[in-house]
Design brief:
The chain is α/β, with parallel strands linked by helices and 412 residues long. It has two domains: 144 residues, Alpha-Beta Complex (Aspartate Aminotransferase, domain 1), CATH 3.90.1150; 255 residues, Type I PLP-dependent aspartate aminotransferase-like (Major domain) (Aspartate Aminotransferase, domain 2, 3-Layer(aba) Sandwich), CATH 3.40.640.10. The chain is built from 14 helices and 17 strands. Strands 4-10-9-8-7-5-6 form a seven-stranded mixed β-sheet, sandwiched between helices. Strands 13-14-17-16 form a four-stranded antiparallel β-sheet, covered by helices on one side. Helix 2 packs antiparallel against helix 10, helix 3 packs across helix 10 and helix 4 runs parallel beside helix 5. The longest helix is centred in the N-terminal third of the chain and has 21 residues. The protein is globular.
Amino acid sequence: MHKLPVSDVDWKVIRNDFPILARRVHGHPLVYFDSAATSQKPRQVLEKVRHYYEYENANVHRGLHELSSRATEAYESSRQRVANYLGAASADEIVFTRGTTESINLVAQAWGEKFLREGSVILLTEMEHHSNLVPWQLLAERVSARLRFVPVRDDGTLALDQLSSLLTPEVKLFAFTHVSNSLGTINPVSELCQKARAVGAITLVDAAQSAGHMPIDVQELTCDFLAFSGHKMCGPTGIGVLYGRGEILDTIPPWHGGGEMITSVTLEKSAFKRAPHRFEAGTPNIAGAIGLAAAIDYLERIGRPAIFEHDVELARYAMQRLVELPGMRVLGPPTERGALVGFVMDAAHPHDLTTFADRYGLAMRGGHHCNQPLMRRFGLPGTTRASFYFYNTSEEIDRMVEILHAATRFFS
């Protein structure tokens, strides 16, 4: 699909594709700075999902009638669209799930329980979202594996100088986030994957905060697994993706049992399809997959390099403006970062601050952001997080700073 040159992108015109951004909240124009939790959806995605339900709604794979054939074609075309988006070698390397969390749980339970044993080491980082921590904790308990963690420095980056002592041959899996959902840190995925491969470890990348913001090529990254959610990249909720290298997926047993993932069933035993269908038991989220493909089409029309440049510039500008506020502490790297800033202010607790901001139409998120160990690492109960996407503007950041100044006066 043709992409617009970065200099030719008219962000204000693109913003008009999102009906919800014209809303007023408590009498004020909506400033939506919570895209790291879920992004807004453009008309093009909404219309695609509506069209499926109005004109092509049927179950996939099993029906011989026209509507089922159309639904199956749309669903499998969406799988191919995702494969192209990620640079996967085949559409068979794409498993549809409910989201990042389910994708990681699938690997932890189906792959982990087959290949990890007592004494196996799982390497994570201190900045992981609970979705890339709790499943490994549960797996470690079940198989008596051990967990190790790459520390986080005070500047929000990983202590990679300690990696050689942590990433040893005992490590069977190294799972880490691409972009921290609290710090905005962009981790060197390719470098980490190459070092893991050198010691024989499998890698899993949590791309929840990167898949919709920057170019990703799984073959260039050399990762074994990669997971992301559709709803954080202009797609519907309830649809996600697990990419897995084909030779690895073919070694993993089914996770859920039921219809669709079988080739034959007797009362005593079943035989299962190859990946990816062996991991998609039951009726899938057909409309979600179609909506995700529409979101990918939309993002590719803009171009991920342009989106990334725009997001980085917004984060940089936010960092510049936020330091004007009294008692302000911004977490994470001071230079290039993902599309978010997490901060604390002496004036108020993050929950109070976000509640105050909501009165003026500013939607941010306050709390631990499913990063409780990371918050403890920095001695904080939580932060206020402002997260951006290509439909946001520098004027909205100025508005955020005005509201935070007002909050300082109010709570003082």
